[in-house]
Amino acid sequence: MKTGIFLSYIGLGSNLLHLTYCHQIAKKYGPVSVVTICKNLEQALEDDPLIKEVIYIDNYYKKFFDIFKLSKQLKVYNFNYFYIFYPSIRFFLASKIAGIKNIYTYQLFKKKDLHLVEAAQKFIKEKLNISSCPSETNFYVSEKKKEIAKNEIDQSKKNIVIGAGSSGPSTRWGESNFINLIKKLNENENIFFYILCGSSENEISKTIINAIEKKNCVSLSQKKIGELIPIISQCDLYVGNDSFGHHITSQCGIPSIVIMLDTPRAYTDYSVNQHRVMPTEINVDAITHDSRISPDMIKVDQVYKKILSLIKL
């Protein structure tokens, strides 16, 4: 018996937000196969015992007429059960044509105002016939990788992940704000910073590191996902933009401060370890992907106070 799950998100963070629901399905059927359009998900989940395999597809999902090509690809995997975490008519029809007998999908043609967490929880409770479903899970990192990371990290210091990168400019707090925050934090002793940016955002980490006289920062931008995950999983705090980093650290039990500029609340309130910082005059429910809140509306002191409320420096 083989169970497949389709996650329809390109961003790594959105995929990891759904990890708990993949785990719930795996607890019923055994390790699952995840079909995704996210390039980095396989590396991120390589230590997860509940994930049998990650299948990356980069074709056949954008156009309606790709249904037949997609069905041919899905048929290769011989899925007995297939869970589609999106109201996708293309994937539903492709699954049907592929001959998958048991197909479960979100209600079709209901994409508007889709709340990622609420929709996924409702879907899992209904399809698995369970009364409750946690909104977060444990992110798996192998013990061997944890030990290697611990040897790289100076555990006598407070190690803080600075999530300076993000999926787009409208979600970034900005280099100058992070520089001023690090300088303020450096008034305390024994802190080390890991600057988390994507490989295409190396200039962001360079700008931040070059501005810090204390030289207690290192960039993670040139590391692969599989290399940096063990490191951030052993840090004491995440503070930064809405990026994949906080989806990992929060599910590793690490306090994670997310600076909200145009991030819907669903991305930042599914874990008890997530803590938002946002403009005081704006209601959290009013923030959407199109909010484009000015970074200057969130002050360095505001973020600094939130840090002090979560860890002792």
Give a short overview:
The protein has 313 residues and is of the alpha/beta class.
Kindly describe this structure.
The protein is α/β, with parallel strands linked by helices and about 325 residues long. The protein folds into two domains: about 5-130, Rossmann fold (3-Layer(aba) Sandwich), CATH 3.40.50.2000; about 145-310, Glycogen Phosphorylase B (Rossmann fold, 3-Layer(aba) Sandwich), CATH 3.40.50. The protein is about 35% helix and about 15% strand. The chain has helices at about 10-15, 20-30, 40-45, 65-75, 90-95, 115-130, 145-150, 175-185, 200-210, 225-230, 245-250, 300-310; strands spanning about 5, 30-35, 50-55, 80-85, 100-105, 160-165, 190-195, 215-220, 235-240, 255-260, 275. It has a six-stranded parallel beta sheet with strand order 8-7-6-9-10-11, sandwiched between helices. A five-stranded parallel beta sheet has the order 3-2-1-4-5. α8 crosses α9. It is globular, with a radius of gyration of 20 Å. The termini are far apart. One of its GO terms (biological process) is lipopolysaccharide core region biosynthetic process. Keywords: Glycosyltransferase, Transferase.
Question: What is the chains' assembly state?
Answer: single chain
Radius of gyration from the alpha-carbon trace, in angstroms: 20 Å
Biggest sheet strand order reads: 8-7-6-9-10-11
Order of helices and strands: EHHEHEHEHEHHEHEHEHEHEEH
Strand content: 15-25%
Instruction: Let me know the average pLDDT.
Output: 93
Question: Helix tally?
Answer: 12
Main beta sheet strand tally, sense and closure? 6 strands, parallel
Report how far the terminal alpha carbons are from each other: 51 Å
Strand pairing plus helix content: what structural class?
Answer: alpha/beta
Low-pLDDT stretches: none
Query: For this structure, what is the CATH class of the largest domain?
Result: Alpha Beta
Task: Write the CATH fold name of the largest domain.
Answer: Rossmann fold
Structural domain tally: 2
Into which percent range does the helicity of residues fall?
25-40%
GO molecular function: ADP-heptose-lipopolysaccharide heptosyltransferase activity
GO cellular component, one term: cytosol
Organism: marine metagenome
Keywords: Glycosyltransferase, Transferase
